[in-house]
Design brief:
Blueprint lengths: L2 H10 L5 H16 L4 H12 L4 H7 L6 H40 L18 H15 L3 E2 L5 E2 L1 H4 L19 E5 L2 E5 L5 H9 L4 E10 L11 E11 L4 H16 L5 E8 L2 E10 L16 E10 L1 H6 L8 E8 H9 L12 H6 L1
Parallel strand pairs: 1-5
Antiparallel strand pairs: 2-4, 3-4, 5-6, 6-10, 7-8, 8-9, 9-10
Helix pairs in contact: 1-4, 2-5, 3-5, 6-11
Bound molecules: zinc ion.
Zinc ion binds next to loops.
Length: 359
Amino acid sequence: MNRKRADGDEASAGPPNTDVLRALVAGARQRITSAEDLAALSAVEAELTGRRSALATWKRELGGLDEAARRELGGELNEKRRVLEALIAERRAALVEVARAGVLEADRLDLTEVIPAPGPGHPHLVTRIREELEDIFLGMGYEIAEGPEVETDWYNFTALNMPPDHPARSGQDSFYVDLGDGESVLLRTHTSPVQIHLLERGVLPIYAVMPGLVYRRDTPDASHLPVFHQLEGLVVDRGITFGDLAGTIETFTKAIFGEDVRARLRPGYFPFTEPSAEFDISCTICGGVGCRTCSGVGWIELGGCGLVHPAVLESTGVDPEVWSGFAFGFGIDRVAIMRHGIEDMRAFIENDVRFLAGC
Ligand SMILES: [Zn+2]
């Protein structure tokens, strides 16, 4: 049986005496203090002090009493109502405070929470490989040399045994800047011009590698970029042979790709070396068995090399009867592709942070 029904029954039984009113207040106090939230309290409030409450019903019935009884009971009813209203107000204030604390807790800023900060980043993959290559050659006793990226025709072609009508020039279409009066410069198409700068310096012997950017008029695709990185090597000393070149290539390819990798030389042609060779390494994907990456042959071409052509030494005033040497060159981007299994070179220049962060 619910409380409202009980209050109503008591009210309809005629004017309440003091005990009934005291019991009403005691029961009401218990209900008010146990209201768990503001909505529950409002419902209790309506039952205890609203128009259908026992107090309101008794008040309506005061008119049937004589004046003295009416005044006495009326005063008592008013007093009980004030007591209930005060209890309700007190409980409401407490519940409002609880609700406010709940909101504050939900909105609380947890200053101890660890939010990962953006990391410091790292150098581009091509830069890291370039630095690694430099370390390898420094460890072999080489110096690192650099040269300008804007060259004259002399350094980029002619001094490298490629006179103006040489057919090998057509394979290296470049970007020219016309300076007027028949003069022009070009963005270097290879790092080989640095060989000429080193030879012109006249300090022999030379054991140097020359990493850097080179430029060719290629349309970007999966295996070509108009701007890419090469590493050139030049050794000039007394009594240098082709065997020294082969051993050097074997040594640095193992250092880059691992001890299991084998290197081989195939006859090739470059104007600035004689004899010339292309050098391959055993496929890093299949280990030389043959796969799609190596077109089933088990070898992947890495670069070109050869003994320095006597004409190149002569063009810089170095006596080829006394000095001999070898040179080699390869793409740093290509090393990155082969070692990290990158399928499309354009990823290097597209600035996609997913790619850059992952390698
Ligand atoms: Zn393979």
